[in-house]
Amino acid sequence: MEIKIGVRSVHRELVVETDLSAEQVEEELSKALAMDRGVFSLTDVKGRRILVPLTSLGFIEIGEEEARPVGFGGTL
User: Fold this and answer.
1) In this structure, what is the dihedral angle of CA atoms 8, 13, 15, 16, given to the nearest 10 degrees?
2) Are 40 and 62 within 8 A, CB to CB?
3) What are 10-23's pLDDT values in tens digits?
4) All structural domains of the chain with their residue ranges
């Protein structure tokens, strides 16, 4: 699943590919929001950890669970 994270004062968003479901991403965000001075964290498909302090978080866009096929794959 693709997650886009907007960080305040940064012109480009972070794009993270993760194996988590949309519900799991929302759960992680809820946990971070419940903490005073929390940090939103995700692990991408390559095992790298992304940490964003909530004070710097602008937005989170949760993509589709399944990727749509791209290209000219014809069926007969």
Assistant:
1) 0
2) no
3) 999 999 999 999 99
4) 2-62
